[in-house]
Amino acid sequence: MNENFHQRAQRLLAESLVEGIAAPDQAWLGQHLRECPDCAREAAATQELLQALRGVPVAVPRDLVARTQLRVRLRAQEASESSRSGLLLWVITAASWLLGVLSAPLVWRGFAWFGGQFGVPRLALEMGFVLWWTVPALLAAAAVLYQRGVAQGFAGQRLPRESKTPH
Ligand SMILES: [Zn+2]
Prior knowledge:
Layout lengths: L1 H17 L4 H13 L1 H45 L4 H33 L3 H37 L9
């Protein structure tokens, strides 16, 4: 019976940090944390971890976004000079950037919940979060490079002298 109370407290604690819990659950959790030193210690450690984690996305991803966005945009500009699919490339670039920005808070909450739930080290969470941010940009860059390769391939087949014109 006691074991169930502790499990319930841990579950409610995790839920309250991610999506919020109902007032009666909140009251029950507060009561249990006052009575149970083990769960209270667990709660304090989780809070500490999450606060440390929440400091990260403000510093890291904004800079990261700016740099990856610039890199992808440069690639897209290079590619669109020799290709008609410039618009498509811009759409891909914008989509990858938007996806990163829009999904960041949601993803971060997921990571924070995951870390709180399974006690994942902070470094591992940060790596995972950074990867999540870079993957869409990397995919966009790959698409840009692929388009560019295709365009150059066609140009080479149709107009062999094309390669002499300076880019
Ligand atoms: Zn407990």
